[in-house]
Amino acid sequence: MSLLEARNITKRFAGITALDDVSLTVDRGEAVGLIGPNGAGKTTFFNCLLGMLRPDRGSVHFDGTDITRYAVHKRARLGFGRTFQRIELFGGMTVRDHLLVAERARLGTGRLWKDCLNQAKPSDEESERVERTLQLLRLDQVADRRIEALSLGRGRLVELGRALMTDPLLLLLDEPSSGLDQHETHDLVRTLHEIQRDRGTAILLVEHDIGMVQAFASRLYVLDFGTVIAEGATADVMNDDAVRRAYLGELTTTHAEEPEHTTITAPVPDDTATTATTANAGTPLLELSEVDAAYGPFRALFGVSFSVPEGKVVALLGGNGAGKTTVARVVTGLVPVTSGEVHFDGTNIAGMQPWQIAPRGVVHAPEGRSVFSSLTVDENLTLDFRRNLGRKGVSGGLERAYELFPRLGERRKQLAGTLSGGEQRMLALARVLVRPPRLLVVDELSLGLAPIIVDEVYATLQKVRETGTTMLIIEQYVGHALRIADSAVLLQHGEVVYDGPAAELGDVSERLLTAQPS
Ligand SMILES: Nc1ncnc2c1ncn2[C@@H]1O[C@H](COP(=O)(O)OP(=O)(O)OP(=O)(O)O)[C@@H](O)[C@H]1O
Ligand SMILES: [Mg+2]
Questions:
Q1: Which of 175, 413, 420, 427 to mutate to test the pocket of ligand 1 (most atoms within 8 A of CB)?
Q2: Whose CA is nearest to atom 18 of ligand 1?
Q3: Which of 106, 240, 298, 375 has the fewest CB atoms within 10 Å, measured from its CB?
Q4: According to the model, what pLDDT value does residue 508 have?
């Protein structure tokens, strides 16, 4: 008998059938992947399993019990654990606190009110369990840091730790690698395998990082428009034509499975950076000179210098925490420099506010999904286009946005807050891609997007580039970024360790490129 057996699940929202007769099983201790395009119904399926949504039809059996009508908390007690696509942690609490609260909730010891008043000291047993989980996830070094001081990647691990504290029989993970770099993703797969092996936990994984799915899951289900279009052993499903067409696309590049392929090291001699910078042809539109930046006492950038010539595309590469996003924030004025200069079109913009920089033609497509949840897709776009394109430009802008992302066109009257993760990302991107600026700074464009959509968005970027837009692209999917870029800048621990043509990245390039089998 399977641990989880979902039969014929159907879920409709106004006008949309998000799930249509979906059946899926997971055995005890099994590692199963659930993949599919953006908006295919993956998160909705999780919500039906967990009782956060009530399916219109179908049943869910867990560990031999029919739980179709059970409340969320009852399912959690039975052994469901989950992490969220959009991270859900509590600001102001430390990593250790998060795990401790989950431990108390598991025991139901009735001391939660004392926790709130900070009066309940953890027992030895509680502390020990927390400690073990911290070590398993390699979070012990940051156990007493507040959540807001952690990177997105570490935050994801805290979510996983919190889910583990309840000793689940089945873990549902919704895009756990999103925001992790390739090295961290590899570590995560290893940790998940350890959890599976040592604790016998079954794991159902939703993920767009195909490399991770292949490295982790032994069996796959593929959803498209709410129906299962393929299921079976991972290797067979990955070679299925329908899956390639609907989801993977032809150009698809994936994260690596081998850590040695993903480690970004810098065997480049010190003088390379200067030679390469001067080798860049054309007048720089953007030029950073000896830029330092910090978040409070934590220094993020150390003397960063590089330039982006007018009309060219530069890929900014590096592992998580290398300082890539900080560079983007410095350029757009969100983080002040502590020393150094940032020249845009001949003017030093260091020290200017974001609202002074943006009108000069610098647009930042940030890594998140900055949309207004309570407005519809149409309203979100109209708001933006009215400001940037003027009243007369709105209808042309909308037309162009829906041409770029037809899925958004089908969802124009839907509230942005109810869009799938990837659809929200498309909405955020449509806002910036419709009106190409002079300098486009793109941060983690592929985050949360299905491989086939990533291919399409890069094709769009090619077109945007042909209009003369200069770009600085920050990307984990290195293969994609390098294919479009004229040159690359590699950051490590806040310092530039390479700046020059992608072809001359040498050993580093070898490693980066082999991490991306086409
Ligand atoms: N409350 C809702 N009202 C209307 N439509 C909804 C609602 N919730 C989800 N949908 C729609 O149902 C479809 C399935 O959404 P879901 O979030 O399950 O997709 P997903 O497979 O998780 O996609 P992604 O990979 O982008 O996260 C989407 O098209 C979404 O817009
Ligand atoms: Mg989702």
A1: 420
A2: 41
A3: 298
A4: 54
Does 429 fall in a domain? no
Beta bridge partners of 489: 316, 499
The predicted-structure confidence for 424-479, as pLDDT tens digits, reads as follows 888 988 888 887 789 999 888 888 888 888 888 888 888 888 888 999 998 866 77
At 367, which CATH number? 3.40.50.300
Render pLDDT for 17-73 as a digit per residue (tens, 0 to 9): 999 999 999 999 999 999 999 999 999 999 999 999 999 999 999 999 999 999 988
In the block, which residue shows the tokens 């156990």? 143
Question: Are 303 and 362 part of one and the same domain?
Answer: yes
- CA-nearest residue for atom 13, ligand 1, is 39
**Ligand number nearest to the C-alpha of 47:** 1
Of 121-130, 225-234, 419-428, 438-447, the least confident: 121-130
Strands (E), 225-377: 227-233, 284-295, 298-309, 313-317, 337-344, 347-348, 362-365
Tokens of 171: 């873990």
Q: Is the beta carbon of 514 within 6 A of some atom in ligand 1? A: no
Domain range spanning residue 446?
262-371+436-514
Name the closest-CA residue to atom 7, ligand 1.
Answer: 418
- Site to probe by mutation for ligand 1, drawn from 13, 19, 411, 454 as the one with most ligand atoms within 8 Å of Cβ, is 13
